[in-house]
Design brief:
It is a single chain. The protein is an all-alpha fold. The chain has a domain of about 170 residues: Rhodopsin 7-helix transmembrane proteins (Rhopdopsin 7-helix transmembrane proteins, Up-down Bundle), CATH 1.20.1070.10. Helix content is about 80%, strand content about 0%. It has 10 helices and no strands. Helix 1 runs antiparallel to helix 3 and helix 3 packs parallel to helix 7. The longest helix has about 35 residues.
Length: about 250
């Protein structure tokens, strides 16, 4: 679990670093200009680390499933080699996705004056600003993004269905609480990640106000990665005691 947590922390730091420094510089310099090359690079790294976060949460759900449903075989199934292979597969899939989407964006031609109604170069916004035909780009974007989001999400749901059915078979209330507490932090992070992400794209599809979309985007690109370490630190007894003292 801590092996995957360290990688999640690394992905979160990189994920926020793709957008926040540029946003802060824009506020300080009172300018929103970004070069074409920087825009493509920002979009590439955003897709890379955002997708890696997505796959890593799925791998962590599988880790919790094995720990709760097959505790005696946990060290055999989740051995260092298996963990390394799961991590490598996550990196490869997200790398291929970000490279494909960036190369598809490079084939587009743009007009001279552009204004992205967002606080960073988001793929969907960039495609809609192109002057050339974007049918293939939109098709690839929705097919690949839908596949790479739907499959991990289904995997997480399936893992938790198995976990719930396994925990309900435990006779003691203390055993049930202990089993659920081991995956409570992960479930909170998953809810934040998918909830805010879906909220951004549903709100952008429903309303045309760029300000509202930008505010919603800040939630899943900045606020969610910042909350992840706090959520997982609540598993530590010393942190819990410090919080109780603070609020009392």
């Amino acid at each position: 679990m801590y092996f995957f947590l360290s990688n999640l922390s690394f992905a979160d730091i990189c994920f926020t670093s793709t957008t926040v420094p540029k946003m802060l510089m824009n506020i300080h310099m009172q300018t929103k200009v970004i070069t074409y090359e920087d825009c493509i690079m920002q979009m590439y790294f955003f897709l890379l680390f955002g997708g890696f976060d997505n796959f890593l949460l799925t791998v962590m759900a599988y880790d919790r499933y094995v720990a709760i449903c097959h505790p005696l075989h946990y060290m055999v199934i989740m051995n260092p080699r298996s963990c390394g292979l799961l991590l490598l597969a996550s990196w490869i899939l997200t790398f291929l996705d970000s490279v494909l989407q960036s190369l598809m964006a490079l084939r587009l031609s743009f007009c001279t004056e552009l204004e992205i109604s967002h606080f960073f170069c988001e793929l969907n916004q960039v495609i809609h600003l192109a002057c050339s035909d974007t049918f293939l780009n939109v098709l690839v974007m929705y097919l690949v993004s839908g596949l790479l989001c739907a499959v991990p999400f289904i995997g997480i749901l399936f893992s938790y269905m198995k976990i719930v059915s396994c925990v309900l078979k435990i006779s003691s209330a203390g055993g049930k609480y202990k089993a659920f507490s081991t995956c409570g932090s992960h479930l909170s992070v998953v809810s934040l990640f998918y909830g805010t992400g879906l909220g951004v794209y549903l709100s952008s599809a429903a309303i045309e106000k760029s300000r509202a979309t930008a505010v919603a985007s800040v939630m899943y690109t900045v606020a969610t990665p910042m909350l992840n370490p706090f959520i997982y630190s609540l598993r530590n007894k010393d942190i819990k005691q410090a919080l109780r003292k603070l609020f009392s």
